[in-house]
Specification:
With 144 residues, this protein is mainly β. The chain is 4% helix and 27% strand. The N and C termini lie close together (8 Å). Bound molecules: FE2/S2 (inorganic) cluster.
């Protein structure tokens, strides 16, 4: 599949752009400073907070699982059995108390934070996949 160019210049905090790459949904989300800051506050509840498993390119093997902290790029497919999790920008705290935003898989209840990191105690074994991507400039991301 060819790489997909995405214009992120109009993406506001909390918003998501969905594109298709190699037949898969890919999400591009802009995280607010508050959300980025929050990522370090519940690591003890995550299976792989430091990205030890090879679920992302080397350049995204960090706490935010991204090149730039504010932009999160991920394949929107649950690592359990392949459903597409629901983005809950405002009501994720109903799933994980004290965590404002995240992704919830409706199929069997797996929960992922705003870096796609899976919570403990759910069926999904691994963090969401981060696809290869790069910045063409400040406004354009190339996925693939
Ligand atoms: Fe997502 Fe089973 S496919 S929890």
């Amino acid at each position: 599949g060819a790489p997909v160019e995405v214009d992120i210049s109009k993406l506001q905090d909390g918003q998501m752009i969905r594109v298709e790459w190699r037949g898969k949904p890919v999400w591009i989300v802009r995280r607010s400073d508050a959300v980025v800051e929050e990522l370090s506050s519940f690591e003890d509840q995550l299976r792989d907070p430091g990205s030890a498993q090879p679920q992302q390119p080397e350049y995204a093997a960090n706490q935010t699982r991204s090149i730039k902290p504010e932009i999160f790029v991920a394949v929107g497919i649950c690592t359990h059995l392949g459903c597409s999790p629901t983005y809950l920008p405002d009501s994720f705290s109903e799933q994980v108390s004290g965590v404002k935003a995240g992704f919830f898989c409706p199929c069997h209840g797996s929960k992922f934070d705003m870096a796609g990191r899976v919570f403990q105690g759910v069926p999904a074994p691994l963090n969401l996949v981060v696809p290869p991507y790069m910045y063409l400039d400040d406004k354009r991301v190339l996925v693939g």
